[in-house]
């Protein structure tokens, strides 16, 4: 991948350039964060002409490496005001890689309100009028684009939330079956795409050759070991394919760490009704699809197709965090209602975690009753209609809390906390507080050691060693994101000392390099340093690396509190 494709959204022009020396060896999150630091003024408005939106395949994307089809989308977040990398599956990453595009950069900003779409092909880039698609939901958008350009193209699109530049707006990507269930969700980057007046991006790799491998035999040997590692681990090879990430509902509930009724308790009495086991039973009964990949080459296959009671498609990529956010957090126990809320988020183009937490804040404020799934559906439908309440909901939990005068708002850097209570999973709590991304479990998934016993076992209820493990995981995760690998490869890698070496071997065979495992750590640290430096320039201080006061309350059933000092948390971001 030797080219950077720059799109000037105001002039409707494009150019290819050779990457500068300091970014030539980077991919994925490493590349997006370095370019945002270098090119975007940290104090600029995220929706201004000075802001940029960058799509970058990982170092292994486009190759035969298993689970290497993830895409990093980077920018300045309209939600947090800091740097953001949002990660997604789908088809775009691999097709950009096959086109030899290291990064796609959307720059500047149109002076009118006309929307366009960008079509990227082997021999040209086209700008097409897209006003006819304004207001079209993401599932219909993918259908229209596949009808127009063929079903082999990759698509990225925004819904009405992105068009209206709401700060919870996502960018949705077609999965291999044409469903909009894959998203760069967190941080509101769909609003940045909307500010550039780009409704959709189409990537057509027709006529391209396979991604070249410097040493095909060595790559094949390393990838064979890699596939065996991924498919033999009990989490990535058995649990996730069988039940998807929703397998965690009962696991986290049993651990007393499932945040319920806006983080008041760690157990939901109706957890079984929204569990992965119930979801799997419904899928089988309703002729859905129990296991499938979010991109070609995935061997974990934790995604699925969930049908309604009439056996019609309802949603796909039905994730644990989504089920928790609209379920236990809001006291909604009807899985079909939660699935409809997931479907609406995909179509409107909204981050499901942010929106689910926001729905709980609306319940906290008395807008709708706790546990009323049908009322939540109707409230969510207001997004994009011009209804003021829809505007409020679409701008996230912190904004909604302000609008309703609520002081119990679970956010860090204005981004909503995900599905693990930090008082009962303290390693992930440290990650929430200290990651440059705002509250984000994927930035350093301490659930592994705290709950699942993957990569060791650390008491989730005590402070001991949890800062250190969060820091280690944040470093490793940044490097995994740079490679374009699915985060779930971390489960077998943490349990097998040869796992990281396999990744290094594939990168070396792909590019003809001589990297060692220590280079992975060095890369992860450099990424975090870039992100922390951007946030420092944007005005963030150590005081922003804190959890809200609501987490000082004792948390049932463990009667634990959030008790880390500022000095202890500061250790997580010292590199």
TrEMBL record:
Its cofactor is tungstopterin; [4Fe-4S] cluster. Coiled coil: none annotated. Gene3D superfamilies: Aldehyde Ferredoxin Oxidoreductase Protein, subunit A, domain 2 (1.10.569.10), Aldehyde Ferredoxin Oxidoreductase Protein, subunit A, domain 3 (1.10.599.10), Aldehyde ferredoxin oxidoreductase, N-terminal domain (3.60.9.10). Signal peptide: none annotated. InterPro entries: Ald_Fedxn_OxRdtase_dom2, Ald_Fedxn_OxRdtase_dom3, Ald_Fedxn_OxRdtase_N, Ald_Fedxn_OxRdtase_N_sf, OxRdtase_Ald_Fedxn_C, Tungsten_al_ferr_oxy-like_C, W-dependent_AOR. The keyword Metal-binding applies. This is Aldehyde ferredoxin oxidoreductase. Keywords: 4Fe-4S, Iron, Iron-sulfur, Metal-binding, Oxidoreductase. It comes from Desulfobacter latus. Belongs to the AOR/FOR family. SMART domains: AFOR_N. It comes from the Bacteria. The keyword Oxidoreductase applies. GO terms for molecular function: 4 iron, 4 sulfur cluster binding; electron transfer activity; metal ion binding; oxidoreductase activity, acting on the aldehyde or oxo group of donors, iron-sulfur protein as acceptor. Residues 1-207 form the Aldehyde ferredoxin oxidoreductase N-terminal domain.
């Amino acid at each position: 991948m030797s080219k950077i494709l720059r799109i000037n959204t105001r002039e409707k022009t494009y150019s290819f350039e050779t990457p500068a020396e300091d970014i030539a060896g980077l991919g994925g999150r490493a590349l997006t964060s370095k370019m945002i630091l270098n090119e975007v003024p940290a104090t600029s408005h995220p929706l201004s002409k000075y802001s940029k939106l960058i799509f970058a395949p990982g170092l292994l994307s486009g190759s035969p490496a298993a689970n290497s089809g993830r895409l990093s989308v980077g920018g300045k977040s309209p939600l947090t005001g800091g740097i953001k990398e949002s990660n997604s599956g789908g088809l775009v990453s691999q097709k950009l890689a096959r086109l030899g595009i290291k990064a796609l950069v959307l720059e500047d900003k149109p002076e009118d309100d006309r929307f366009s779409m960008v079509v990227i092909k082997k021999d040209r880039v086209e700008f097409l009028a897209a006003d006819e698609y304004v207001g079209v939901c993401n599932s219909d958008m993918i259908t229209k684009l596949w009808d127009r350009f063929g079903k082999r193209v990759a698509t990225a699109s925004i819904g009405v939330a992105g068009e209206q530049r709401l700060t919870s707006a996502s960018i949705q990507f077609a999965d291999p079956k044409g469903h909009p269930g894959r998203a760069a969700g967190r941080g509101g980057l769909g609003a940045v795409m909307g500010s550039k007046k780009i409704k959709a991006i189409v990537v057509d790799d027709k006529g391209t050759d396979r991604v070249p491998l410097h040493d095909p035999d060595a790559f094949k040997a390393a990838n064979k070991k890699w596939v065996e590692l991924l498919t033999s681990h009990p989490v990535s090879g058995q649990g996730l394919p069988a039940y998807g990430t929703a397998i965690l509902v009962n696991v986290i509930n049993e651990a007393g760490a499932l945040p319920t009724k806006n983080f008041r308790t760690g157990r939901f009495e109706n957890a079984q009704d929204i569990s992965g086991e119930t979801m799997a039973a419904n899928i089988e009964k309703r002729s859905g699809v129990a296991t499938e990949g979010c991109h070609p080459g995935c061997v974990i296959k934790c995604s699925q197709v969930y049908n309604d009671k009439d056996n019609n498609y309802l949603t796909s990529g039905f994730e644990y965090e989504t089920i928790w956010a609209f379920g236990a957090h809001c006291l909604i126990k009807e899985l079909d209602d939660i699935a409809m809320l997931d479907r609406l988020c995909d179509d409107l183009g909204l981050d499901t975690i942010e929106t689910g937490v926001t729905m709980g804040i609306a319940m906290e404020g008395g807008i709708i009753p706790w546990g009323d799934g049908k009322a939540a559906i109707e409230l969510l439908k207001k997004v994009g209609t011009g209804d003021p309440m829809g505007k409020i909901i679409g701008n996230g939990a912190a904004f909604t809390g302000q609008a309703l005068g609520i002081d119990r708002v679970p956010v860090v850097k204005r981004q909503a906390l995900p599905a693990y209570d930090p008082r009962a999973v303290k390693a992930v709590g440290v990650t929430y507080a200290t990651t440059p991304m705002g509250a984000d479990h994927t930035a350093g998934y301490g659930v592994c050691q705290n709950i699942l016993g993957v990569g060791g076992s650390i008491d989730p209820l005590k402070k001991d060693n949890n800062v250190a493990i969060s820091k280690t995981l944040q470093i490793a995760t940044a490097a995994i994101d740079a490679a374009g690998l699915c985060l779930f490869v971390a489960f077998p890698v943490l349990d097998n000392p040869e796992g990281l070496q396999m990744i290094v071997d594939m990168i070396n065979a792909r590019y003809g390099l001589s990297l060692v495992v220590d280079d992975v750590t060095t890369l992860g640290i450099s990424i975090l340093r870039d992100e922390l430096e951007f946030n420092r320039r944007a005005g963030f201080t150590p005081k922003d690396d804190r959890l809200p006061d609501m987490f000082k309350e004792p948390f049932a059933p463990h009667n634990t509190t959030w008790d880390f000092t500022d000095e202890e948390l500061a250790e997580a971001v010292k590199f």
